[in-house]
Specification:
- The structure is a single chain.
- With about 350 residues, the chain is mainly alpha-helical.
- It folds into two domains: about 35-120, no CATH class; about 130-350, Rhopdopsin 7-helix transmembrane proteins (Up-down Bundle), CATH 1.20.1070.
- About 70% of the residues lie in helices and about 0% in strands.
- It has eleven helices and four strands, in the order H-H-E-E-E-E-H-H-H-H-H-H-H-H-H.
- It has helices at about 1-30, 40-50, 80-85, 90-110, 130-160, 170-195, 200-225, 230-250, 255-280, 285-300, 315-350, and strands at about 55, 55-60, 65, 70.
- Helix 6 packs antiparallel against helix 7 (about 200-225) and helix 7 packs antiparallel against helix 8.
- The protein is elongated and about 80 Å long.
Length: about 350
């Protein structure tokens, strides 16, 4: 009896192990990109791990001498400290070279590009991983800087100031904070798309969440004309608590890209709805600018959900989304300047 039970238990253990291995394999396949499982790509990576070369192209930092003696151990442990710090290491170069060679073969056969390690096959330009996204992010940064400086010039040099030499525009300080967060977000977008590593990814996501969260708060405060500090604190506190918790979650628990996209999309849509409703009920002279920004931003967000391979290895949906926000940013700061001027002149008329 006990012998039969032992045999049955042994068979069940083997069955459980087999099922576990099968599930693990399926999970790995489902999580991997199509290019990761390509046999030619995998064999290219294996060769590069052994030799540090892909065809005639070799990477000097894959194998380096220490005191004239080649270091023992796998190639990925043979990194000089300065290369580790910069994160330009053998693994990245091997993946890029193998991906490039494989995509050339696929293109010659008329096949469409595929993803490798969750990313489309971009062409590096001057060492930049996603050149179009970097260029458009830089333009957005420049546009926010220009908009903010023109806003400051209008407030403090072209419009009347109160006795304390402060602007009459009640939302001036909120706009200053918005400008700083916006420029910070686009700066880290430039860094992240230049070189994607865990640190730059975390900084990019966190900065974007901070900007979107604050933009939502700003839309509510301006639309409902909340001017006293106590009211602003009451409105902003629960939002700040949620955004801070989300940023801490991303950085210290799980950098979940899918969850972060959902949170950012909800915040983006919410603030667009707030501005759209306010533009519909107000008689603001520059409401057409706000309508244009809201409608254009809504269309631009669709690019985040419409994924396609990069044209010429450079322009993908994400980079084009960054591109569409450049003129919208210019128009947005134009609306802020108009709002500041209109409210300031109205206030001056009232006190006279």
């Amino acid at each position: 009896m006990s012998t039969g039970f032992s045999i049955h238990k042994m068979m069940m253990d083997r069955y459980s192990i087999a099922v576990f291995m099968m599930i693990s394999f399926l999970v790995g396949v489902l999580n991997a990109s199509e290019g990761d499982s390509d046999l030619h790509y995998r064999s290219c990576l294996a060769e590069c791990e052994e030799t540090g070369c892909v065809g005639d192209q070799c990477f000097r930092h894959c194998n380096f001498p220490s005191d004239g003696v080649l270091v023992d151990g796998p190639w990925y442990m043979k990194e000089p400290l300065y290369l580790k710090w910069k994160q330009w290491e053998c693994e990245s170069d091997c993946r890029y070279a193998c991906m490039t060679d494989r995509e050339k073969e696929r293109e010659e056969r008329g096949e469409e590009p595929i993803k490798y390690h969750g990313k489309w096959p971009f062409k590096r330009v001057l060492g930049i991983q996603e050149p179009a996204s970097v260029a458009f992010s830089a333009l957005n940064l420049a546009m926010h800087l220009h908009g903010w400086l023109s806003f400051v010039n209008l407030l403090y040099y072209n419009l009347p100031l109160n006795q304390d030499k402060k602007a009459y525009y009640e939302f001036a300080s909120l706009c200053h904070v918005y400008a700083i967060l916006a420029m910070n977000s686009w700066f880290w977008s430039i860094v992240f798309h230049t070189r994607e590593v865990d640190l730059t990814e975390s900084l990019d996501y966190s900065s974007a969440v901070a900007l979107l969260g604050y933009s939502l708060i700003l839309s509510i405060l301006r639309s409902f004309n909340v001017r006293d500090e106590a009211g602003r604190v009451m409105v902003a506190a629960p939002f700040l608590a949620f955004f801070t918790t989300h940023i801490l979650y991303l950085n210290f628990y799980n950098l979940d890209y899918g969850w972060n996209v959902k949170v950012c999309a909800i915040m983006g849509v919410a603030q667009l709805l707030v501005w759209a409703i306010w533009a519909g009920v107000t008689r603001h002279p520059s409401r057409w600018k706000l309508w244009t920004v809201v409608f254009g931003s809504g269309l631009a967000m669709l690019l985040e959900f419409y994924d396609f391979p990069p044209h010429y290895g450079v322009f993908d949906a994400h980079s084009l989304w960054h591109g569409t926000t450049v003129p919208l940013t210019f128009l947005w700061w134009s609306f802020i300047r108009d709002d500041a001027e209109i409210r300031t002149l109205d206030f001056i008329k009232k006190i006279k």
